[in-house]
Amino acid sequence: MFRSAAALCLAAGLLSATGSSEAAAPAAAGRLDHDPVPHQHWSFDGPLGNFDLASVQRGYTVYAEICSACHGMQHVHFGDLTGMGLTAAQVQTIAASHKIPDGIGSDGKPALRAATADDAFPTPPVAQGLIPGAVIPPDQSRLAEVYPGGPDRIYALLTGYGPPPAGVTPAPGLFYNRFAQGRAIAMPPPLSDDAVDYPDGTKATTEQEARDVTTFLAWAAQPHLADRHRTGVRVMIYLVFLGVLLFVLKRRLWSNVH
């Protein structure tokens, strides 16, 4: 899967470095719009929302095996993965499988070392702008928070690829996607059925992969969401209790006043 994901990065490199992942409208379409994005039900929606950690873990599998070939997550550290239910030993194993820069070696060349839990996820060369002519993919650390449309739009983009309608021809190097701005995007379709093997045995359809990786990106952007929601509920309960207490106290103090 890493080989196929890397091929996607190279394919995107057909565009100029000044391009964007969502490109201008296809030449034949002549429009700068896209299909309305359907709202999805997410476990983390609403004031009492919480992350489905099984989905978050599956989403990390999709990110690690597909997305990480092009997209970095420079604001996420390996140690943060304990927040999605992994043990410290599992996190250390994942970290050690990555190599990160470690200064200059004795031979005068850049040295590498195995990552630790304290290290941030490495940024791939294409995201560092080291591949001439390639579009620089956005960092995914906070993508679910800053991307217009949020998780709904990310899921829609990942599942919105398909053959263009009759009479519509995307510009060279672009791919038709009905949810992309102008219905054209520089990123080749990253997901497909059975693109990954889920450790928990979940069937890896394109839609499942898209839902899981979107959930993972939402978790990466707000890893403490559940804690904030629990704190908010406690504060609301306290305020309601305090309000009732003050009301009762007021009635007692003014009960003899007519």
TrEMBL record:
Membrane-spanning residues: 231-249
Write the record's keywords in alphabetical order, separated by commas. Heme, Iron, Membrane, Metal-binding, Signal, Transmembrane, Transmembrane helix
Q: List, alphabetically, the PROSITE patterns matched.
A: CYTC
The residues the entry assigns to the signal sequence are: 1-23
Per the annotation, which location comes first and is thus the protein's main one?
membrane
- InterPro entries to which the protein is assigned, alphabetical: Cyt_c-like_dom, Cyt_c-like_dom_sf, Cyt_c1
Q: Which residues form a coiled coil?
A: none
User: Per the database record, which ranges form the Cytochrome c domain?
Assistant: 54-221
Subcellular location per UniProt equals: Membrane
Protein name in UniProt: Cytochrome c1
List the source organism.
Answer: Acetobacter musti
